[in-house]
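User: I'm curious whether this sequence folds into something compact or stays loose and floppy. Could you predict its structure so I can see for myself?
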Amino acid sequence: MKTACLIVSFVLGIGLTDAQAAAKNLVLIAGRPSHPPGMHEFRAGCLLLQQCLSGVRGLQTTVYTNGWPSSDSLLEKADAIVIYADGGGGHPAIQGERRQLLQRLIDQGTGFGVMHYACEVPKDKGGREFLEWVGGYYEHEYSCNPIWSPEFKAFPKHPVTRGIQPFSIKDEWYFNLRWRPGDKAITPILVAKPSDTVRDGPYVWPAGPYPHIQAAKGRDETMMWVRENGRHRAFGFTGGHFHDNWGDDNFRKVILNAMLWVSGVRVPGRGVDSALPPGALKQNLDVKK
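Assistant: Here's the prediction. I'll summarize afterward.
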């Protein structure tokens, strides 16, 4: 399966065909603009991924921008919800009554995914839920966020890793996440060993180093994982800081595979192949100063 990721204007359709009506519904929530140009390009990243999935049979993908749909009711028929947005105290999933909404949807079997900063929630507001929903999360001053180039050399046998080849790419890869103790439903997908220099910092913020991060020198770290517990599927991905990284075939494919899998759509044997036309990474960027 190969799709050309053509960045075009997106219009919600009316009068869907029977095949479209029966398709799984994947919702991508793109966060509000933040960071300098080329970083945290949530809208452009989600629209690019949407176009890469446009040729996948059995999947309908909708992108909502600026942090959340205009109405919670728009999430009711989602088979999976993936958030690519700023996190921490401003995380879109923890505002108002949204935790209760997501809990109900996840209890009903809705898949859930978080990407980059959206992996972070305050431990006392969202931490408990993320341990249950995703199996882990970024905890302030327990986890760390250096910019580095991990080498992903081997992968478990899983639908999300189909077609992935060893790769290395520079990004703000978080690690030392807070994990749900003894959770055997978690499968690490992208794992690498930070060098001693990486552990010694600096991290993006606070700069560190943190003694407990240094004390774990030589240990492998997980930077993408999936979780499957009964009929609920979830994934977390700590990369995605630099928008241009979506131009890397393996970086892009592992997320496209994850989006199919979390939605309940079969991942092709070679994974989701996609090709970016010239200029694709320059489309739909936020206007930033």
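Summary: Helices lie at 18-21, 42-52, 98-107, 127-133, 196-199, 211-214, 249-263. The chain is about 20% helix and 20% strand.
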